[in-house]
C-alpha cells in the first residue's frame, strides 16, 4: 500500500512537470546555425553554439501581443570575450517594436555586460547596461519580460531592473499593436562587443555554448490575468533603484553628450 502511494505521488509529480515544463520542440524553431543549435533532453533544454564558422539561433513558433515571458539562461562560461548572446522580442518590418536583452561576454573572471534596449515604431536608442550581481555562467538564471498595455518590465530572477512605461500621452510611441516573436542567437561580435573591439574572441575556446531551459509564457486570456494590469509596486520601484544604483553602467537617460538638446521625454519619469 505504502509503495503504491509513493508510485502514485511520483506519477502525479511527473504529470505536473510535463504539463508545466517547457518544451522547446513544441514552442520554438531553430532558425540558423547548421546543427549548432540543439534541442536536448526531450525538449527541456536548448543549446546554442558558436564556432569560428558560424553562430546559431532560434525563434518562437508563437507570436505574442503582450505577455509575461520567462526564460532561464546559462551564458557562455570561461573566456567568452567577443561573444554576444541576444535574447529578445521583436515584431517585423521597418516600424517594428523590440524588447532586448543582450549579454556581452568577457574574459574569464571579468563581468558580463547585460545590455537592454526598447524599440518602438522602428526607433531604439534607449540603451541601458548593467553588470549582474551573480556569475551568469555558473547556473541558470531567469530573465523575464513583462509586457502589458501600461508598461514593459525587465526582470532578472524576479528583481525588476528596468521599466519602460506607456507614455503615449507625452508623445512616446508604445508597443501595443504589433505582435512579437521571441528570438535568441549567439554570435561573434569581437569587432565591437568587448571594450570596443580591443579584446578578440579566443577561438581555441570554441565551441562557445549558451543554454536555455524552463521557458514559460503567460498570455492574455479572457479572464484578465494579474500580470496584465500589473505595474511596479513600491517594493519593485525600490528594487529597480537598488539595481540602478549598484549595477547600472550605462543609461541613455543620463548621457548628455548624446542628447545635448535635452533627454527624450520618457527619461523624466523612467
Ligand atoms: C569586461 O571586464 C572589464 C574589466 O572589469 C569591464 O571594464 C568591461 O566592461 C567588461 N565587459 C566587456 C563586455 O568588456
Automatic annotation (TrEMBL):
InterPro entries: Beta-glucanase-like, Beta-glucanase/XTH, Beta_glucanase, ConA-like_dom_sf, GH16_AS, XET_C, XTH
Cell compartments where the protein resides: Secreted, Cell wall; Secreted, Extracellular space, Apoplast
Domain GH16: 18-212
Keyword Glycoprotein: yes
EC number: 2.4.1.207
Protein's UniProt keywords contain Secreted: yes
PTM: Contains at least one intrachain disulfide bond essential for its enzymatic activity.
UniProtKB keywords: Apoplast, Cell wall, Cell wall biogenesis/degradation, Disulfide bond, Glycoprotein, Glycosidase, Hydrolase, Secreted, Signal, Transferase
Predominant place of localization: secreted
UniProt xrefs under Pfam families: Glyco_hydro_16, XET_C
EC class of the enzyme, as a word: transferase
Signal peptide: 1-21
Family: Belongs to the glycosyl hydrolase 16 family.
PANTHER family: XYLOGLUCAN ENDOTRANSGLUCOSYLASE/HYDROLASE PROTEIN 8-RELATED
UniProt function note: Catalyzes xyloglucan endohydrolysis (XEH) and/or endotransglycosylation (XET). Cleaves and religates xyloglucan polymers, an essential constituent of the primary cell wall, and thereby participates in cell wall construction of growing tissues.
Protein name as catalogued: Xyloglucan endotransglucosylase/hydrolase
Natural source organism: Penstemon davidsonii
